[in-house]
Amino acid sequence: MSPSAGSVRPLAALASGPLRGRIRIPGDKSISHRALMLGALAIGETVIEGLLEGGDVLATAEAMRAFGATVTRQAPGRWTVNGLGVGGLLEPEDVVDFGNAGTGVRLAMGLASNQATTVTFTGDASLRRRPMGRILDPLRRMGVQVLARSKDRLPLTLKGPDVALPIDYRVPVASAQVKSAVLLAGLNAPGVTRLVEPVATRDHTERMLAAFGAAIEIETNADGERVISLEGQRDLRPQSVEVPGDPSAAAFPIVAALIVEGSDITVESVLLNPLRSGLLETLIEMGGDITIEKRRTVGGESVGDIRVRASRLRAVNVPAGRAPSMIDEYPILAVAGSFAEGRTVMEGLGELRVKESDRIAAVAAGLAANGIACEEGPESLVVTGGSGVGGGRVTTHLDHRIAMSFLVLGLATADRVAIDDAAPIATSFPEFRDLMTGLGARFEELEPPAS
Ligand code: S3P
Question: Rounded mean pLDDT of 439-447?
């Protein structure tokens, strides 16, 4: 059974009174995956505090065990990893199943294919539909052989070379996963792996590699592009990693508080890395009453407590260039746009078509089902606020962010909003329902369909 598989759990969100209180959301998903993976390569004990214990990250923990690392849950959120050294991962005895976790599988393909082992990767129905060519292209250039049943889709078997080749690579899509897979593969290639990143994406891999003692340098070239150089075959030193709160999870209570009348909440200890902060910037432009309190540094990252009060929102045009810094937040921004005065225009969204679901189509269908006017373009969405009342049933396509976004919608519409399946929420934010209920949100479980 894949880590995210389970029974279907339909759920409805009901119109709720003001949301009030303080919450702490779980650790950042991107940083959690990376901490487990770098821990698996460092000889000695890496201690991780605040690890996200969602299905995606648990799949990565299990995968690191399959590669021979000792991964132990010492207490809730506190994990230790005893690694095997760069180039020291073992060949797993079985297929490695990443469930719903795109980041997990893509980074692990880079991590594990730079050495002479053969590994078969797979995932759930959603992950098996997602494109892997973007990772396989650079890995092939490093000497990795790829066996696929269906072109560039999981399940995939990767046979690493005896000696990986360091490459010079220009990242062709704005994707932190592609960048990270190449950097992780470069760790065991003799010489310098050089990456040019035309559009800056989240930089957690670079930051964490530097903290673990990798020989990594980042410069900006004459065209303003980031150039990352990594010298391979250097040992990594185990670290203590403190994982800040996930801004992509915080997005749901933040938007809920903006749109549910009378709300006033504080979300504590949220990562404020500027390459992840596009949603906050946009919501503030829309007139959201959002203040950042107690800014501080945790584990080398800026964090703060975010106070949000219900606000009258105005529609804005979100520039395409902002997409990489809020790539996972468009579904919930579309929900905010449903309550804003005017047309919220979102452009440059091509990558949303290849996330856990086709998020442009899923959002457009979900809004339409709830009477909200929405125009879907090949790479854009336009939402007209103030038009919907809820009452719809939304298909989530195994996509946790579609599920949470539409539940948030239902807290603020007159009629309830139902989703076909809340189970995938556990991949990234298992505490979602409890934390939201604690703030005053109302949900109702529905009968699963007869099978
Ligand atoms: C992630 C990168 C993004 C994002 C994903 C997490 C990461 O994907 O959507 O949820 O941790 O590197 P892309 O790199 O495909 O944009």
Answer: 97
The model's pLDDT over 357-384, given as tens digits with 9 standing for 90+, comes to 999 999 999 999 999 999 999 999 999 9
Task: Please tell me whether residue 430 adopts helix, strand or coil conformation.
Answer: coil
- Report whether 9 belongs to an annotated binding site: no
Ligand 1 pocket check for 30: Cβ under 6 Å? yes
pTM check: above 0.90? yes
Annotated binding residue 307: no
Catalytic annotation present for 328: yes
The radius of gyration of the chain's CA atoms, rounded to the nearest angstrom, is 21
Q: What percent of the chain has pLDDT over 70?
A: 98
- Residue of 30, 37, 98, 103 to test ligand 1 pocket, by largest number of atoms within 8 Å of CB: 103
The strand ranges marked E within 127-252 are 145-148, 156-159, 168-170, 192-197, 215-220, 226-231, 240-242
Ligand 1 in contact with 326 (CB < 6 A)? no
| Catalytically annotated residue among 28, 124, 328, 399 | 328
Could you read off the pLDDT of 387-434 as tens digits, one per residue? 779 999 999 999 999 999 999 999 999 999 999 999 999 999 999 999
Q: Name the helix (H) or strand (E) containing 210.
A: helix 204-211
Q: Where are the domains of the chain?
A: 5-26+244-445, 29-229
Which of 132-141, 149-158, 264-273 shows the lowest per-residue confidence on average (mean pLDDT)?
A: 149-158
The pLDDT tens digits for 303-314 are: 999 999 999 999
Topology agreement, domain 5-26+244-445 and domain 29-229:
yes
Q: Choose which residue among 32, 126, 135, 327 to substitute to test ligand 1 binding: the one with the highest number of ligand atoms within 8 A of its C-beta.
A: 327
87 appears as a binding residue in the annotation: no
Q: What fold does the segment set 29-229 form as a domain?
A: UDP-n-acetylglucosamine1-carboxyvinyl-transferase; Chain (3.65.10)
CB neighbourhood size of 53 (10 A): 18
Please name the residues in contact with 265: beta carbons below 8 A apart, sequence gap of 6 or more.
19, 20, 21, 22, 23, 253, 257, 307, 308, 439
Q: What residue's CA is closest to ligand 1, atom 10?
A: 328
Helix, strand, or coil (residue 302): strand
Total residues found in the chain within this entry:
451
Phi and psi at residue 50, to the nearest 5°: 80, 25
Please tell me if the CB atom of residue 351 comes closer than 6 angstroms to any atom of ligand 1.
yes
177 is in an annotated binding site: yes
| Domain at 5-26+244-445, CATH homologous superfamily | Enolpyruvate transferase domain (3.65.10.10)
431 Cβ below 6 A of ligand 1: no
